[in-house]
Specification:
CATH topology of the domain at 2-120: Alpha-Beta Plaits
Number of helices: 14
Strand content: 15-25%
CATH architecture of the domain at 2-120: 2-Layer Sandwich
Oligomer: single chain
Helix content: 40-55%
Distance between the termini: 90 Å
Largest sheet: 5 strands, antiparallel
CATH superfamily of the domain at 2-120: Trigger factor ribosome-binding domain
Order of helices and strands: EEHHEHEEHEEEHEEHHHHHHHEHH
CATH class of the domain at 2-120: Alpha Beta
Length: 457
């Protein structure tokens, strides 16, 4: 029986829970256990279960008292944790650790037992103001050139690959064999498909293919440059026999009303297609801009509210990321560890490098959770049922399971509404004007000085 319990908050979202067990409850547990063992313990000179209790206590009492008391500690700790406030309940991945165990033993008869466990809890913090903030975010617009480029992609996607009898030229699709004469054939290729100007070949044959026709053969001599990819070939003079087996080209459809109708039944004319593509690109751009606005809000909130997540929370997320990497590469963690070990690294060092990023992710999620709870977004039964139906066959799921899934789905849907809410309820001024391509694909790096100079010539 617990006579007293106290919780003390420590650093980094950890607490210490101290519990005092009454001497009577400890004695009761000890007597119950020694009585149970007395029926089975065999003592020399006595039949099984017939040894005097005093003799058993003398020989085994300390060990049995220790077992009984630790059993009672475990039992009453569970009771205490069930009764504490939610904010003081341990995280699922933070097992309460008994402090100063060596000072507890040996347990003495007829004395209270006070013990302390430490564990991590969900970080507690005041939610910073998250509405009406004045922030900066980029802007962008969809230009005619972006629409034209997207339509060209659509034309390319709808192109037919057609054989041709004429000579190969840039952007044609050719099938070749090539053989390095006077070699062991390590780098030879058969039925190798190349899009001229787009697909690299080992010997940089792209320019040599231009002008060749199907069934034509030729031998070229090349001296490979100092920057050739394979060091064994740098500066080497090689003879390559090329056989052109097929020449094809992309037969791109004309940009006309028929093409527009092939793209979508929603389009009747080229103007419809252009308007539809512009609408799609604008929606994509707005979605990306909203993401950047949301990031700006969250960065501001995290800066205002520097939460220090407990180590167990960071470690749990890092372990989950390692498992995902292993699964994506079809291997177990041991194999992944061996691979990093071969590179002079360790999984622990990788996790340590992730810590700042994980801390920031945790802070974002914790703040979002607070906002979700504060705003109490309304979710319709239709939305929940639609998500539940997307899980597949529900016939084998019990009503209790469905209830649980609905609660999880509802919470997830509420959480997903935070992003849109933050974007709508804060003010943004333009930090910079971005092109559509820069917005969607990131900034284009300028070529190196030498490359710029070469192009200028």
């Amino acid at each position: 029986m617990i006579s007293d319990k106290k919780i003390q908050e420590t650093e980094n979202s950890s607490v210490e829970l101290s519990i005092t067990l009454t001497a009577q409850s400890v004695e009761d547990a000890y007597k119950a256990l020694i009585t149970k063992y007395s029926k089975d313990i065999v003592v020399k000179g006595f039949r099984k279960g017939k040894a005097p209790l005093g003799l058993i206590e003398k020989k085994f009492g300390e060990t049995i008292r220790e077992e009984a008391t630790f059993g009672l500690i475990e039992e009453d700790l569970k009771t205490a944790l069930d009764e504490v406030e939610d904010k003081y309940k341990p995280l699922a991945y933070s097992q309460p650790a008994l402090k100063d165990e060596e000072k507890l033993v040996p347990f003495k008869a007829s004395e209270d037992v006070t013990f302390t466990v430490s564990y991590d809890v969900i970080p507690q913090f005041e939610t910073p103001e998250y509405k009406g903030l004045e922030l900066q975010a980029p802007t962008a617009s969809v230009l005619k050139a972006n629409v034209d480029a997207e339509i060209e992609k659509l034309r390319g996607q709808n192109a037919l690959i057609v054989s041709k009898d004429s000579a190969a030229k840039k952007d044609d699709i050719v099938t070749i064999d090539f053989v390095e004469l006077d070699s062991e054939g390590i780098n030879d290729r058969n039925d190798f498909t190349v899009t001229i100007g787009q697909t690299p070949t080992f010997f940089n044959l792209e320019k040599d293919l231009i002008g060749m026709k199907a069934d034509e053969e030729k031998t070229v001599t090349k001296t490979l440059a100092e920057d050739f990819a394979d060091a064994d070939y740098v500066g080497k003079k090689v003879e390559i026999k090329i056989t052109m087996k097929a020449v094809k080209y992309n037969d791109v459809p004309e940009l006309d009303d028929d093409f527009a109708q092939d793209v979508s039944e929603d389009y009747e004319t080229v103007d419809d297609l252009k308007a539809g593509v512009k609408k799609q690109l604008t929606e994509r751009a707005n979605g990306k801009l909203d993401e950047l606005k949301y990031q700006a809000v969250m960065d501001a909130l995290v800066e205002k509210c520097p939460i220090v997540a407990p180590k167990s929370m960071v470690d749990a997320q890092a372990d989950q990321q390692l498992k995902q990497i292993a699964q994506q590469n079809n291997m177990d963690l041991e194999t992944l560890s061996d691979i990093f070990g071969g590179q002079g690294k360790s999984l622990d060092s990788l996790k340590e490098n992730w810590t700042p990023m994980i801390q920031k992710d945790i802070n974002r999620n914790l703040i979002q959770e607070k906002i979700k709870d504060a705003e109490d977004f309304q979710i319709t039964d239709e939305d929940v049922n639609a998500e539940l139906a997307s899980m597949g066959d529900l016939s084998k799921i019990t009503e209790e399971q469905q209830k649980y899934y609905k609660e999880v789905i509802t919470d997830n849907l509420k959480f997903s509404k935070v992003n849109e809410f933050l974007v709508k309820n804060n003010k943004f001024t333009s930090s910079k004007k971005m092109s559509y391509d820069e917005l969607m694909n990131g900034p284009v790096e300028a070529p190196a000085t030498e490359e710029v100079a070469a192009e200028a010539k």
